[in-house]
Amino acid sequence: MSLAASAGIEVEGLVREFKNGPRAVDGIHLRVAPGEIYGFLGPNGAGKSTTVLMLTTLLPPTDGTARVAGHDIRREGAAVRAAIGAALQEAALDPLLTGQDHMRLQTTLQGIPKGERRARGDELLERVGLMDAADRKVGGYSGGMKRRLDLALALVHRPRVLFLDEPTTGLDPSSRADLWDEVARLAREDGTTVFLTTQYLEEADVLADRVGIIDKGGIVAEGTPEALKAEIGRPSVEATPADRADRDAVAGVLSRFGSAVPAPPGAAAVRLESGENLAEVVRALDAADLAVADLQLHQPSLDDVFLAKTGRKLDPPASEEPAAV
Amino acid sequence: MRRFLDVAYGIAYRSTKKVATNPQLLLPSLIFPLFFFVAFAGGLSSVGDVPGFDFPSGYTAFQFVFVLLQASAFGGVFTGFGIASDFENGFSRRLMLAAPNRLGILAGYTLGATIRAAVVGVLLFVVALASGMQIDGNGVDLFGLVVLALLVNFTAAMWSAGVAMRIRSIQAGPAMQLPVFLILFLAPVYVPLDLLAGWIEAVAHLNPITPLIEGGRDLISGGDFQPLLVFGVAIGLGALFLAWAVRGVASAERAGG
Amino acid sequence: MNELALQTYEMARRSVVKVLRQPALVIPPILFPLIMMGINVSGLDAATEIPGFPTDSYLDFAIAFPMIQGALFASINAGSSVARDVETGFLNRLALTPMQRAAMLLGLFTGEMLIAFVSTLIYLAVGFAAGLHFASGFAGVLVLLALSLLIALAFAGLGAFIGLRTGSPEAVQGVFPLLFVFLFLSSGSLPRDLIEHDWFRIVATWNPVSYLFEGLRSLIIFGWQARELALGFGFAAAIAVLGVFGATTALRTRVAVR
C-alpha cells in the first residue's frame, strides 16, 4: 500500500439523500493527499457535515463511496475508524465529567493499553493547555477549552487522518487563532492529514493547503486558495472621500479604472481593469482635486470566489463578528 | 474481543463515575421507589387485614418486592434516558467513532445500568430493613430475589435502549417510561392475584410481569417458589428485549449516530 | 375594567391555546390520573373490605384522586409556562405593553381553571359511566365543581409563584417529586382513621391536601357534611390566597427589576 493510500482521502461520487428531502450531498469527488490540510468551505446546509459524517462512517452513503486512509468507508468501517480521529460540531462532551474523565474514557474506548492511558491523556491535555483544568467538570469550561479538549480527545490514538467539523464556530478570535496554530502544527510536525469544514473564509484561507467550495451538495470550485483567487483575478480599489458630498465625484473618477463593486456607505469601489495600479488612481483623484480620507487596495478573497461561482455572497453566520459601526 | 471489553468497560466506568461524583443523578431512580414504598407499605398497610389476604411476612415485605422490582425497572429506563440524551447532544458520536464494534456500547450502558440498579437495590434493602421488614426466605431465596431484580433491570434497560437508539431524542422519554409504568401497575400491586377484582384481574393474569412479582413475594416469604416459571419468564423477556436493543443499535448506525 | 377583562381574556386564550397546541402537555395531565384511578379502583377494590371502610365501591372513594392529581399536574404546567415566559423574555415584552399587570396573572389563572374544569368534567363523566354514586345529588356536583376550581386556582397560583420566582422551567419541574409527597402522604388512598401506622396518619393529618380530598369525597360518599366542606374550601382558599399573593409579589419584583 502506498503512503498516499494509507493516509489520504479519495471520494468517488458520494451521495446522501434524506427521506423526503433534497440530496444533501450530490455526487462529490475529491482527493486529499497525505499530510495535506483540506478546507471544505460552504454556507450552512451546503452538505459539509453530511460529507464528514459519511467519511467518518457515522452515516452510510446513499450512493458512491470513499476510501479513507486506504479503507473503504462502506465495507471497512472499523478499519476506517481505527485510522481516523474526529472532532465534530458542538464539541460533544459530558458536562458532568472532568477533562481527565473524558481522556480516560477516550483512551479506553480507543484500546490504548491500560498502562499507557494516563500518560497519553496527560500528554495531550498538556499539549492543548488544559492540564490545569483537567480535574474540573467540563460544564464549567469555556467554548475554547471545550474545542481544545475535543481536539485532544480526537488525537488519543494518533490518527493518520483528522476530521474537524467547523472547529472554531462560535469561538472568539484569540481562541480561534490558538486552535489554528494547533491544527497547523499537527499537519506540519506529525504529518496528519486534516479534513476541515468551515464557513469562515479566513479560516480556509489561513489554514488550508487546498480548498473545496461546496454549495447545495456539490463542489463548485477546488484548488489552493491562491489559485482560486487568481482565477478571479484582479484586485479592487476602495476610496472614501474626506467630504461625504464628494462620494459621487470620487465614484466617477474611479469608474475610469474599472467596473463598480459594492462598497460601504460613503465610499466607492471598483474592480481594477488589468494593468491599472493604485498610483494611477491616486494621481487621477488628485487631478480632480478630490481629498481622500482612506484608500484601500483589496486583493480578491475567497468570498469573491464564492460569489463568482455561486452568484451569492457567503454570509458569515449571524452569531459571528458584530457588524462594524 | 479485548476491544469489545474495553469499550464496555469505558462506558460503564463513565456512567459509574458520573453517579459517584454527582449522586443527585441517582435521585430520580431512588426517590420514586422509596416514595412508593413509604406510601404503599406505610399508608396502605390495613389492606393487609382484608379477609383472604394471607401473606405470611406482612404487608411491608409484600410491598417491598413490588417496589424493588419497580426500582430495578425504572433504573433500566433511566439508562434509556441517558442513551437518548447522548444521541441528542452528539456524545454518542464520540462513542460510535471510537468503538470498532458498536455492540460494546450497548454492553457498556447495560453494565452501567446494572451497577446503578445494584446501588439503588442495596439502599432500598437498608431502608426496608430499618423500617422493620420481616424476611422469611433463606439466603438462597434472597439471592434469587436479587437475580430476579437484576433480570428485570436488564430487560427494562434493553427495552429503553432499543427505543432510545431508534428515536435518538429525549422526547422519547415518555415512550420508554409509560409502557413500563403501565405493565408494572397492571399487575397484582396492592393485593395478591387471587384478591384482584374486575378487569384488572383478567389483565394481571396475562401480564408477564405478574409471575415475577408473585415469584419475588414467594422468595421473600420463603413460600412455594416456582423457579422454572419465574426465571423462565424473566430470561425469556430479557432475551426478547436484548434482540430489540441489538437491532436498535443497527438502526442507530443506519441513521448516522 | 372593560380593558382589564379584555386583556385577561387574551391572556387566558393564549394559555389555553398554548396547551391545546401541545397535546403532549394536555393529554398526560388528564389521561394519566385517569389511568391511575382505573388501576387503583380495580387493584384496591379489596380495600373496601377493610372493616370501617366508608363505602363498598372504591370508585366512589377514588374519584377525588384524579381531580387533585390533575390540578397538581396542571400547576406544574402553569409554572413551567410562566417560567419559560421569563426565560425567553416574553414576559418583558408583555411588561412593555400597556397591559395591566393583573391581566397577566388573571389570564393565566383563568386559563388553568378552564382546563381544570374540563378535566374534572371528564373525570366525572368517566366516573358516572363506571357507576359512580353521588350522595349529595346534582347540587352536590355543582359544589364539587366549585371546590375543584378553587383547588385548581390554588395550585396554579403556587405553580405561577414558583415559576415567576425562579424563572426556570427546570426548577419548576424539580418541584414535581415534592408534589407526589403531598399527594400520597395524605388520606388520598385510605381514610385517615384506617391508616395503621401512626406516623403516616400524623403526616396525613398535617397535610392540607388530605382535607381537599376529604372535602371532595364528602359530597360523593356522605352527602352534605358542613365540617368536611368547610375544611376543604378553607384550605383550598388559604392555599389560593398564598399562591396568588406570592405570584403577584413575584411578578411585581420580576417586572420591576428588569
Description:
With 325 residues, chain A is α/β, with parallel strands linked by helices. Chain A folds into two domains: 3-223, P-loop containing nucleotide triphosphate hydrolases (Rossmann fold, 3-Layer(aba) Sandwich); 231-310, Alpha-Beta Plaits (2-Layer Sandwich), CATH 3.30.70.100. Chain A is 36% helix and 25% strand. Chain A is built from twelve helices and 14 strands. Chain A has helices at 3-7, 48-55, 77-83, 99-109, 114-127, 143-154, 173-190, 201-207, 225-232, 247-254, 278-287, 302-310; strands spanning 9-17, 23-32, 37-41, 63-68, 71-72, 84-87, 161-165, 193-198, 210-215, 218-223, 236-241, 258-261, 268-272, 292-298. With 257 residues, chain B is mainly α. Chain B has one domain (2-255). Chain B has helices spanning 2-21, 27-43, 58-89, 91-98, 103-130, 139-167, 173-185, 199-206, 209-220, 227-255. The model of chain B has no long low-confidence stretch (mean pLDDT 91). Chain C is mostly helical. In chain C, 81% of the residues lie in helices and 0% in strands. The radius of gyration of chain C is 19 Å and the shape is elongated. The model of chain C has no long low-confidence stretch (mean pLDDT 87). Chains B and C meet through α2, α7 and α8 of B and α2, α9 and α10 of C.
Largest sheet of chain A: 6 strands, mixed
- Domain count of chain C, please report it: 1
CATH fold node name of the largest domain in chain A? Rossmann fold
Task: For the largest sheet of chain A, list the strands in their spatial order.
Answer: 6-7-8-3-9-10
Number of helices of chain A: 12
Shape of chain C: elongated
The main sheet of chain C comes to: none
Indicate the low-confidence ranges of chain C by residue numbers. none
Strand portion of chain A: 15-25%
- For the record, the CATH class of the largest domain in chain A is Alpha Beta
Q: Biggest interface, which chains? A: B-C, 33 and 30 residues
- Rg of chain A computed from alpha carbons, rounded to a whole number of angstroms: 23 Å
The counted number of beta strands of chain A is 14
Supply the number of structural domains of chain A: 2
Write down the overall geometry of chain A: elongated
> At CATH's second level, what is the architecture of the largest domain in chain A?
3-Layer(aba) Sandwich
Overall pLDDT score of chain C? 87
